[in-house]
Write a structure and sequence with these properties.
Blueprint lengths: L7 H6 L6 H10 L4 H5 L6 H10 L21 E2 L8 E5 L2 E3 L6 E2 L24 H22 L7 H5 L1 H11 L6 H28 L7 H10 L4 E3 L2 H4 L13 E4 L2 E7 L8 H22 L7 H7 L7 H13 L5 E2 L2 E3 L7 H14 L5
Parallel strand pairs: 5-7
Antiparallel strand pairs: 1-4, 2-3, 2-9, 6-7, 8-9
Helix pairs in contact: 5-8, 7-8, 9-11, 11-13, 13-14
Length: about 375
């Protein structure tokens, strides 16, 4: 994702305002950048000592920073409000996802050697109140990561664990100048985050069985192990139809709750392959949103692929292609009518879908 000449880690180190936690993260991954980190104003004593232990020559390494290319500005991702519509021309239904946008910038870099050795330490404090609050935070942090590990490999994990938000708390914990009130606040927020994750895991366990006995719920439970919910309320949750003939909405995923798929009531839904493709299309939107949440800059791999010209430049067509690839179908016309955006993706695009699915843990047969 982005210009190959752009090194986001080097750019961060050359920015004097980069927070200490980010410096520690880069230090753990990029031994080649240790000399630059040592010269950063945010390099705290514990990080400096750690670098000296794992890379003793870093302090004497001659620094010749490489030029940083201007990062490519990625286009619009659709994860805050929702993604655009899918037409289902059967029994007079239209499945709609309403379009939203979030502008983001280019991503990070994993170039350079990984660092072998002890974990990078966070800064400590001599203030008893700060030390006590940070100890509480560390306990919550350990429990949070234990819980998050239970979702390893689940395509919905980035939306469930909200790891990027917890990482912000970890950055605050790494601030060597954190105050007692600041430490208490991040400890409290870490506790709330951990409790929310515990509740989500409990809720997923309760809904992981196919209570309705429907094909739709079976597909969704198989994909998300209970972390993706299904509600039969598309007629009220998805807004009014924009179809010129006023056909009801058949399905959507909203930005306010990207872990819930809303479908038309079961007795109104099309059956067979058409319903299967509809559900898989909506699941693809969940995966696209999770893809965005898994990136440091919230620019999804899916958005990058669309910007390259795949799927007619549309994440909706990409969702169609995911469904077609999953079912090995080469048509969007079924017994009960036409579905989707009218474009049947190519063999090359299906290979692209498989590569993307592997990166975001989206299931494919």
């Amino acid at each position: 994702m982005g210009d190959q000449m752009y090194d986001a880690d080097l750019a961060a180190i050359q920015n004097p305002h980069t927070p200490p936690a980010q410096l520690a993260d880069i230090a753990a991954r990029r031994g080649d950048l240790h000399p630059y980190i040592l010269n950063h104003p945010g390099c705290y004593p514990q990080l400096r000592e750690w670098i000296a232990r794992v890379n003793p020559g870093a302090a004497h390494y001659p620094m010749t920073p490489a030029p940083i290319a201007s990062p490519r500005r990625s286009g619009v991702g659709c994860f805050l409000i929702g993604c655009g519509g899918v037409a289902l021309l059967a029994f007079g239904f239209v499945a709609v996802l309403f379009i939203g946008a979030a502008v983001s910038s280019s991503g990070g870099s994993d170039d350079g050697p990984a660092v072998q050795g002890p974990a990078v330490p966070g800064p400590t404090s001599d203030d008893p109140a700060v030390a006590e609050a940070l100890a509480l935070f560390d306990a919550e942090q350990a429990r949070y990561h234990e819980l998050a590990a239970q979702l390893e490999g689940n395509p919905a994990a980035p939306l469930v664990t909200r790891a990027s938000l917890f990482a912000n708390l970890e950055q605050g914990r790494a601030d060597p100048k954190i105050t007692a009130s600041g430490a208490a606040n991040i400890a409290q927020e870490a506790q709330a985050h951990r409790q929310e994750l515990e509740q989500r895991i409990a809720d997923a366990a309760a809904r992981s069985t196919n209570t309705s006995g429907s094909l739709s719920e079976a597909l969704i439970d198989e994909a998300g192990a209970g972390f993706i919910d299904l509600v039969w309320d598309a007629d009220t949750a998805c807004g009014e139809s924009t179809h010129p003939e006023g056909w009801p909405v058949a399905g959507c995923v909203t930005g306010s709750d990207p872990l819930t798929i809303h479908l038309a009531p079961a007795d109104q839904s099309a059956g067979g392959m058409q319903q299967r493709v509809l559900v898989l299309h909506e699941l693809a939107h969940v995966y696209q949103k999770a893809d965005a949440f898994s990136q440091d800059d919230y620019v999804s791999i899916a958005t990058d692929l669309v910007e390259q010209g795949y799927f007619q430049g549309s994440e909706e067509v990409m969702a169609d292609c995911y469904a077609l690839t999953y079912t090995n179908q080469w048509t969007l016309v079924f017994e009960d009518g036409a579905f989707g955006y009218g474009y049947v993706c190519s063999e090359e695009e299906r290979h692209v879908i498989r590569d993307w699915a592997a990166q975001v843990n989206a299931p494919l047969p």
